[in-house]
Amino acid sequence: MVNQRALVRTLGLGYVIIVVIANILGSGVYKKIAPMATELNSSVGVLIAWAVAGIITLFGALGNAEVAGMLADTGGEYVYIKKIYNRFFAFIYGWSLFTAIQSAAIASVAYVFAQSLNSIVSLPQILPTLNDFSIGGIFFPFQEFNIKLTAILLILILTYLNISGLRVGAGVSRAIIYMVAAGLLTIVIAGLTSIGSDPLKISSISTSTFTGRTVTLSSFYTAMLAAFWAYQGWVSVGFIGGEVKDPTKNIPKGIVIGVLIVIAIYLIVNFTYLTILSIPDLTEINASGIKIAAVEAVRSFWGSGGALFISLLILVTTLSCTNASILTGARPYYAMARDQLFFPSMSKINKNNVPGTSLMWQGIWSAVLILSGNFDQITDMLIFTVFIFYGATSLGVFILRRKMPDAHRPYKVWGYPWVPAIFVLFCIGLFFNTIITRPREAAIGMTLILAGIPVYLYLKRKYKGLY
Fold it and tell me: How many CB atoms are located within 10 Å of the residue 193 CB?
């Protein structure tokens, strides 16, 4: 029987902006400044790296916005790639999203949430006798099982809320984002007005940026990669294109406005950190492996109470990011199944007009990734994997201008052809740089991508008439 239910367009521009911001704001705003400072040894250099990474992200968002304005529908990047290229490349993108990109992002942020909760309430040990149990000596599912189980429970609870309806899930994101914004504003105001705040910690280095050690283009590039993890997630709003009112206008506007807001937040918050913590302080924090720059900055002027406050804020932020990632992430699998490019059950819409089955399987797979314990490897290769498709979408701006020159474009990318061209060239550079400097992560990413080929061939054989 053909599923008669369809997604309902209920989200306006305000919700789109909230979803963009909620998908980006995660642990990066609190943690990434320390490795960036270690890499660059300069406060000004760190701020420049945040700004440049934000500008490059914005360039990608601007190109994506033109494509989204033309092709906006549920599935986002999957829909765009299918229209620009072909069904095979679109499937490979969706497969990569499910196996590594989106599900891994959900698992990773949920894990950070559980770690933050454990630092506040000290979660009880669960099955400690199985701590050394392994599968093939590679996977240790019961290590830190109290944290893993908490992360899994969070994913299941938020998945249930989103299965209950899109407005419930989006409403949760909006409420949490308001709390996060208030918390970050409090930190900025309190930090900049505290006794320990000294803008000279930045300005004193400004005349000799990058001194004290040799900073190469590669090290600056590496510092930006840390920032890119913090900016990751903006594209997810396209996944819910079929549920957005007037999507050809609201999605491009929402992407650009949301990314600009996040760039401003990151620069202001990190400027605040840098007026409180010196580069040696940040280097020591990074070397410790267990400290978080934001926590140490707030601890310096609010003591242990401040550390608790920022830990709670990290908890709320990662809760928001996990919820937003779950909310948007399942839509591409629904769109793929609707096109008979994924398993049929994923195309079902429940009584609440959301792809409940797709949400359920996304939650299950994210839980499996948590139990696998390979978070660091998956996170490292996530940027490598996703930028392949980011670049392909921006390249699509040029392809669509040639294939569909007369098509209505509610939004045209600013600075064409230079803006999308710069972003495409950057993605190519990232691809080859990762292969050279991080061959293991690149190999994992390519293996997960190529693992989709047998599945595609199976679906092609099953639905011969559509291929």
Answer: 9
Sketch the domain layout of the chain as residue ranges: 13-466
Assigned fold of 13-466: Amino acid/polyamine transporter I (1.20.1740)
Say whether pLDDT at 276 is over 80: yes
The answer on pLDDT for 2 being more than 60 is: no
Position of tokens 């305000």? 14
Q: Give the tokens for residue 133.
A: 């149990």
Eight-class DSSP state of 74: B
Q: Is the pLDDT of residue 28 over 90?
A: no
Which residue stretches of 164-242 are H helix?
A: 166-192, 200-206, 217-231
- 113, two tokens: 């949430």
> Mean pLDDT for the chain?
81
Taking a C-beta distance cutoff of 8 angstroms, is the pair 397, 409 a contact? no
Phi, psi (degrees; rounded to nearest 5) at 187: -65, -45
- Helical H segments across 41-165, by residue range: 43-71, 77-84, 87-96, 102-121, 145-163
Rounded CA separation 339/331 (Å):
13
464: left (phi over 0), alpha (psi -120 to 50) or beta: alpha
Question: Residues near 222 by Cβ (< 8 Å), separated by ≥ 6?
Answer: 39, 437
CA distances from 420 to 65, 94, 429, 432 (A): 11, 23, 14, 19
- The average pLDDT across 434-458 equals 86
Instruction: With CA atoms as reference, report the closest residue to 181 among 24, 286, 65, 347.
Output: 24
Could you tell me if 148 and 381 are in contact, meaning their C-beta atoms sit under 8 angstroms apart? no
Tokens of 315: 């908890």
Instruction: Say if residue 327 is exposed, middle or buried (CB neighbours under 10 Å; 0-12, 13-18, 19+).
Output: buried
**Which of 452, 459, 460 shows the shortest CA–CA distance to 95?**
452
